[in-house]
From TrEMBL:
It is found in: Membrane. ATP binds at residues 360-362, 452, 493, 516, 550, 630-632, 751, 757, 780-781. It comes from the Eukaryota. Residues 803-1056 form the P-type ATPase C-terminal domain. The lineage of its organism: Eukaryota, Metazoa, Chordata, Craniata, Vertebrata. The chain crosses the membrane at residues 50-79, 91-110, 244-267, 287-312, 834-855, 867-887, 916-936, 956-974, 986-1009, 1029-1051. Residues 1063-1084, 1122-1142 are annotated as: Disordered. This is Phospholipid-transporting ATPase. It is a multi-pass membrane protein. Keywords: ATP-binding, Magnesium, Membrane, Metal-binding, Nucleotide-binding, Translocase, Transmembrane, Transmembrane helix. Residues 1074-1083 have a biased composition (Basic residues). Belongs to the cation transport ATPase (P-type) (TC 3.A.3) family. Type IV subfamily. One of its GO terms (biological process) is Golgi organization. It is an enzyme of class 7 (translocase).
Length: 1166
């Protein structure tokens, strides 16, 4: 579809195109398709399909030597548990409301829109709507939409609406939420349609009684549904390793079965003929055919080498560890009543292997609550000079939540200093804030960005109160006097201009342009006469930057009436142009925004969250590298880096990459000052003339060094800005960039776009075999969160987009240390112990069958009772290993923070790897030899104490399986580091369960009920009452665990691990006093960050956001947040709550954590 065509009130015409209806199916199953579809999906997994294949083999009498229930019971259990989980996750939500492309009438009683339509009319004098836009699930922003005048005149007259026959031509369905292009043809005239005239699916009417519109897209063609693509399914590194190991196990299983089949063929040729009297062969069956059948028989018998219960157990362990995260009170934030949430159950152990953390800055490291802190006006700096708050009682409209401490600025305002008045007048006029006054004197500001809200609130408290606005005027109260300025033009902000201006006419008739923006941008447009003032202001900006403040420069100029009239005419022509409109407007803006006069600068503080420096320091000691990816200016991010201990004064050097071409960036990355301390071979090969060969060598050298990071002499930091990063991410430079960045302890990327954030994460994932984590709080972090192995969302001031795209979420950055160093490390350790032990007990169980085959003529006879084979993994050994996997701790939470080095083994995959798996297999091989040959030798020439023979198959089977269960239970005890009552109950209870079930199944009553199923009658009571049997059990169990005890003793004494060292240390002393923060005087300039989105000056001047005074209006805002794609109605102005409520007082001990968790002890043994 290249173009969509619609005609109002012409159903036949619209139906001819066969556009999608409004029917949307968001569920995967329904009542009839659930069972077949779910089974089909489950059997696509190799393990499930494998066990189904075994079940088919077991129904063939010539092959199977086991009963069908040995496979059916575990398989049915696994399929049932998985099906129940899938059914719970898939809540059926089928919306089958069919809507024809016609007129739609909406009122306040309707739920959010479930289709896109073009707005025709609404009840306002200016045809407009107020919407609460529920975009991307719970991201709420107040929006203003505008109807065309030609359709707005239709009102709610049904007859006029029914007679309307306009035709719409627009773009086909797509997922672009920020743009729409189309035309309406009516009465021979064409009218442009854009995004401001379209109501999207998910919007809800606010402060608007009704509206009429024409449906354009429905159902799956709406933009919201077009954006609902499936997220990439994330698997842990252990999952990927398991896939490889399972394939290896399958190969090993085929190898063992082949050996036993060959053995059967040889045995049949040499010994089989002697047994034909007892076991006559069927016609045509020779030794080769017998070997073929034996191969498949042993495939069935040895299938426990890949137990199906493994996958169910893994899911239970992950679910339990996810609950620990949800229940952790230390990760609960009382101020916002926000607990931590594990939004996935499949990635817990990956949290214990994180090597790189990619973090946003604003709202993630900082609070994203802006406060007007300092300013520079006409060369004089104002700010905090004492702790006494300024009294704003002289201003009845002042915001009581605004705090300022420099009384000199108030005195300058009262003395009517002209520069000071001009300064605050600019702040009161140059913005796109909307004011809401519920009652006299009670103002609420709805700002596009928190910075802008803070500036307008500052002007309000210093006597320049923004009161209200119309499409062509702005009303402010200047020192108690009501004044109305004619608003002639808004030169709106965008991410290229980095500034905004307004042109107003004063009540006296004077034309003025007021401009605010990034200091570097404003300085380029200043008049030459401002050079001295610019130097002084620059010094103030440097001072503000040293404190990590966000700065903004203010300037103005007076305009000539005649020139402005000419410019205004050209501006009108450019704003109505259909082609190249933006570039034409930019040229006009550049023309008028020059020769400005500098007024001063503002400094806004965005405070760090509590515990951020301590958390970053702790993660750094755990050898986790932190990269900050922010859209803020380089100077701002760099100073925040020093504030949060990401960059430190004691670093050897902090490299700044600011090249403007790919060649410059490459040379800077390759420069001698970056690579001179590397102990590896430098990757630059300047002597090579062939560029392709040089790139090949670079990549080859990188491959060899990608296993481990390069070792450098000293600590380094790297700061790179947005345009340089764009070149650094090019294919020819990306390896250079990554090598240099990986040498650094900390990396800060500034002025990056959301796409670049994801590209940086993908770059590290591509070349470094490490686990990455991305953490952010806003919509511009979603791509980064989805790209990383682990995504963490901060539920802060910016809504829920980041949280809803994340794998884990909480309210404060400092909780990341709990997530990684405690929950992540424990989850990884538990999962590795579980896998090691699970493979050990099942390999040992299976290998005994292999040795027994050499003594039973390779006849596919099982060693154990069939019921023991069925219940071994499901009952006898299930709960003990689950108890270890859910409750085990090598060290407690306190020691995890005191010794962050405990985290490093997880990064290196030391607890479970191919090597660890191979060691586990060797251990199992040894144990199986002991478990088979010791009971075999003990039973071979043994008699009971009454002289009767006990050397029968059933007694041998009972003795072997009892020895096996004791051996694996003792081994489990050696694996556990932290015993609880639950663990003890599970281990002892499982042994008790084994004996209870064994005596029951081997009883006379069970034999009389089902003789064929319970053939081991009396074996338990006849064997287990003999002392030599228990002596054999003791000897076998001791020999199984003796090498393990010896190996671990020698390992602890000769080569102790970090865990062994920590467990032997004494409790840490009381934490020392906090170190004194080094106050840093920086020459870098902090940057003021506008919103990433286009501004809303056109809405201000069009009148489309204005409404008639309502009888009653909400007293508080419903949401707050800085967004990247639109107007944010609730700015955090001057440090007060976006909900209109005062900030809550600091809650003491709400997290219940000790400062000791941030400390590290100095122990020479470590």
């Amino acid at each position: 579809e290249l173009e969509r065509k619609l005609r109002a009130n012409d159903r036949e015409y619209n139906l001819s195109f066969k556009y999608a209806t409004n029917a949307i199916k968001t569920s995967k199953y329904n009542l009839f398709t659930f069972l077949p579809l779910n089974l089909f999906e489950q059997f696509q997994r190799i393990a499930n399909a494998y066990f189904l294949f075994l079940l088919v083999l077991q129904v063939i009498p010539q092959i199977s030597s086991l009963s069908w229930f040995t496979t059916v019971v575990p398989l049915v259990l696994v399929l049932s548990v998985t099906a129940a989980k899938d059914a719970t996750d898939d809540i059926v939500s089928i919306h089958a409301v069919v809507l024809h492309l016609s007129f739609l009438h909406c009122s306040l009683t309707l739920p959010p829109f479930c289709r896109h339509f073009f707005c025709f009319s609404s009840p306002f004098p200016h045809p407009r709507l107020h919407l609460s836009r529920l975009l991307f699930l719970r991201e709420t922003n107040l929006k203003v939409k505008q109807a065309l005048p030609v359709t707005g005149d239709l009102g709610e007259d049904i007859e006029k609406l029914a007679d309307f026959n306009g035709e719409v031509r627009c773009e086909p369905p797509n997922n672009r939420l920020d743009r729409f292009m189309g035309t309406l043809t009516f009465a021979g005239q064409k009218y442009p349609l854009d995004n401001e005239k379209i109501l999207l699916r998910g919007c809800t009417l606010r402060n608007t009684e009704w509206c009429f519109g024409l449906v354009l897209f429905g159902g799956p063609e709406t933009k919201l549904m077009q954006n609902c693509g499936k997220s990439t399914f994330k698997r842990t590194s252990i999952d990927r390793l398991m896939n490889v190991l399972v394939l290896c196990i399958f190969g090993f299983l085929a190898f063992m079965c082949t050996i036993l089949a060959i053995g059967n063929w040889i045995w049949e040729l040499n010994e089989g003929s002697q047994f034909m009297v007892f076991l006559p062969r069927q016609d045509g069956n020779d030794a080769a055919f017998s070997a073929f059948l034996t191969f498949w028989s042993y495939v069935i018998i040895l299938n426990t080498v890949v137990p199906i219960s493994l996958y169910v157990s893994v899911e239970f362990i992950r679910l339990g560890n996810s609950f620990y995260i949800d229940w952790d009170r230390k990760m609960y934030y009382a101020r916002s009543d926000t607990p931590a949430e594990a939004r996935t159950t499949t990635l817990n152990e990956e949290l214990g292997q994180i090597k790189y953390v990619f973090s946003d800055k604003t709202g993630t490291l900082t609070q994203n609550i802006m406060t007007f802190n300092k300013c520079s006006i006409n060369g004089k700096s104002f700010g905090k000079t004492q702790n006494i708050r300024v009294d704003f009682s002289f201003n009845s409209l002042a915001d009581p939540r605004f705090i300022f401490h420099d009384h000199a600025l108030v005195e300058a305002v009262k003395l009517e200093n002209p520069e000071v008045h001009s300064f605050f007048r600019l702040l009161a006029l140059c913005h796109t804030v909307m004011a809401e006054e519920k009652k006299e004197g009670e103002l609420f500001y709805q700002a596009q960005s928190p910075d802008e809200g803070a500036l307008v609130t500052a002007a309000r408290n210093f006597g320049f109160v923004f009161r209200s606005r119309t499409p062509d005027s702005v009303s402010i109260v200047e020192m108690g006097q009501q004044r109305s300025y004619e608003l002639l033009a808004i030169l709106d902000f965008n991410n290229v201009r980095k500034r905004m201006s307004v042109i107003v006419r004063t009540p006296e008739g004077k034309l003025s342009l007021y401009c605010k923006g990034a200091d570097t941008i404003i300085y380029e447009r200043l008049h030459q006469s401002c050079s001295k003032l610019m130097d002084v202001t620059t010094e103030h900006l440097n001072e503000f930057a040293g404190e990590g403040l966000r700065t903004l420069a203010l300037a103005y100029k007076d305009l000539d009436e005649e020139y402005f009239n000419q410019w205004q005419q050209r501006h009108h022509e450019a704003s109505t142009a259909l082609d190249d409109r933006e570039s034409k407007l930019d040229q006009l803006y550049e023309e008028i925004e020059k020769d400005l006069l500098l007024l001063g600068a503002t400094a806004i503080e965005d405070k760090l969250q509590d515990g951020v420096p301590q958390t970053i320091e702790l993660l750094s000691k755990a050898d986790i590298k932190i990269w900050v990816l922010t859209g803020d200016k380089q100077e701002t991010a760099e100073n925040i880096g020093y504030s949060c201990n990401l960059l430190r004064e004691e670093m050897t050097e902090v490299f700044i990459i600011s090249g403007n071409t790919p060649e410059d960036v490459r040379e800077e990355l390759r420069s001698e000052r970056v690579l001179k301390n590397s102990v590896l071979v430098p990757i630059a090969s300047e002597s090579l003339s062939d560029c392709r060969l040089r790139k090949l060598i670079v990549k080859l050298l990188f491959v060899f060094s990608s296993i481990t990071d390069e070792v450098v002499n000293g600590e380094y930091g790297l700061v790179i800005n947005g345009h340089s990063l764009a070149y650094a991410l090019e294919r020819s430079v990306e390896v250079e960039f990554l090598r240099t960045a990986c040498m650094c302890k900390a990396v800060i990327c500034c002025r990056v776009t959301p796409l670049q954030k994801a590209q940086v994460v993908e770059l590290v994932k591509k070349y470094k075999q490490v686990v990455t984590l991305a953490i952010g709080d806003g919509a511009n972090d979603v791509s980064m969160i989805k790209a990383a192995h682990i995504g963490v969302g901060i539920s802060g001031q910016e809504g829920m987009q980041a949280v809803l795209s994340s794998d884990y979420s909480f309210a404060q950055f400092r909780f990341l240390q709990y997530l990684l160093l405690v929950h992540g490390r424990w989850s990884y350790l538990r999962m590795c112990k579980f896998l090691r032990y699970f493979f050990y007990k099942n390999f040992t169980f299976t290998f005994v069958h292999f040795w027994y085959a050499f003594f039973c003529g390779f006849s596919a006879q099982t060693v154990y009772d069939e019921w023991f084979i069925t219940l071994y993994n499901l009952v006898y050994t299930a709960l003990p290993v689950l108890g270890m996997s859910l409750f085990d701790q090598d060290v407690n939470c306190k020691y995890s923070f005191q010794h962050p080095q405990l985290y490093i083994p997880g990064q290196l995959n030391l607890y479970f790897s191919k090597t660890a798996f191979f060691k586990c297999a060797l251990h199992s091989c040894y144990s199986s030899l002991v478990l088979f040959f010791i009971p075999y030798a003990a039973m071979q020439d043994t008699v009971r104490d009454d002289g009767k023979d006990v050397a029968d198959y059933q007694s041998f089977a009972l003795l072997t399986q009892t020895c096996l269960l004791f051996a694996v239970s003792i081994q489990l005890g050696f694996e556990m580091s932290y015993w609880t009552a639950v663990n003890t109950f599970f281990v002892l209870g499982s042994l008790a369960m084994y004996f209870a079930v064994t005596f029951t199944m081997y009883s006379n009553g069970m034999f009389l009920m089902l003789p064929s199923a319970f053939s081991f009658i009396g074996t338990a009571r006849n064997s287990l009452n003999q002392p030599n049997v228990w002596l054999t059990i003791l000897l076998t169990s001791t020999l199984c665990v003796l090498p393990v005890v010896t190996y671990r003793f020698l390992l602890i004494q000769l080569c102790p691990t970090i865990n062994d060292k920590v467990r032997r240390t004494k409790p840490a002393p009381s934490p020392p006093a906090r170190r004194t923060r080094i106050r840093r005087t920086s020459s870098r300039r902090s940057g003021y960050a506008f919103s990433h989105a286009q501004g809303y000056g056109d809405l201000v001047t069009s009148g489309r956001f204005l409404r008639r005074p309502a009888v009653s209006r909400s007293s508080a805002f419903t949401n707050a947040g800085r967004t990247t794609m639109g107007f944010s109605p609730m700015g955090r102005s001057a440090g007060y709550s976006p909900t209109g409520r005062p900030q809550a007082a600091k809650v003491e001990d709400v997290e219940g954590m000790s400062l000791q968790m941030y400390r590290t002890i100095k122990d020479s043994t470590l």
